[in-house]
Amino acid sequence: MVLILPARRKFLSSLKEDCKINSIKCEDDSLEQITVDLFSGNQKSEAVLYFEWNNLGLMNRINEQYQTVHSMKLAIENFFLSHGGISKNHSNSSILFYNWNQLVHSLTLFYENKEFKWIKRQDSINDIGIGYIFSKTIDDSEPLITRLPYLFNSMVLDSKDTKHSEKENMENLQSSESDRIRAKQ
Q: Looking at the record, which segments are called Disordered (predicted)?
């Protein structure tokens, strides 16, 4: 359990409610840590990249390079850490970014990275998870949650068997406000 200052309890309460309403599987301890991360330190953090892992999907992708689920999660976490992210709780589930542009840049590099082709959507195999960006409103009063539908599925085959490019997926992420999840309007 993390000590939450009284001024941030309302934010945490709203974050928990938004996650529950939107069926985001995130433990209370993780949400507390995300709240602390977003408001702690000398710099205000811009966002937390959160992974909701599907261990069954990860187990189906075990190979010679990644022989355990943990090694797969660690590889993904290390990628984002090497591109500006900070991991304060070492859970392989959340990565803090002080700068929004750094986060977007690291996501772009992740989409373009061929080393992670094993994470892409595959027929008859569960996806490895869903990504979310937890951030806050300009006045820091309410949480904002952005679902990243293509984080682990950036090469998706459609019914015509054509591929959506990673560039298109990144453009969708950057321009689409429709993926903003807001429980309260």
A: 162-185
And the tokens for 120? 């892409």
Q: pLDDT at position 179, please?
A: 43
* DSSP at 140: S
**Of 154, 37, 171, residue with least CA distance to 104:** 171
Joined together, the tokens standing for residue 72 give 């797969």
pLDDT at 169 over 60: no
Residue identified by tokens 């209370």 is 28
Residue 155's contacts (CB-CB under 8 Å, 6 or more residues apart) are: 117, 120, 121, 163, 164, 166
41-98 pLDDT, tens digit each: 655 668 899 999 999 989 998 888 889 999 999 999 999 999 999 887 767 789 999 8
On the CB side of 116, how many CA atoms lie within 13 Å of its CA? 28
> What is the residue extent of each domain of the chain?
6-181
**Among the listed residues 8, 9, 21, 12, the one whose alpha carbon sits nearest the alpha carbon of residue 184:** 21
The pair of three-digit structure tokens given for residue 143, joined into one six-digit string? 């949480």
- Per-position DSSP letters for 106-130, written without gaps between them: HHHHHHH-GGGGGGS-BTTB---EE
Across the chain, mean pLDDT equals: 78
Distance (Å, whole) CA 162 – CA 29: 42
Over residues 8-35, mean pLDDT: 88
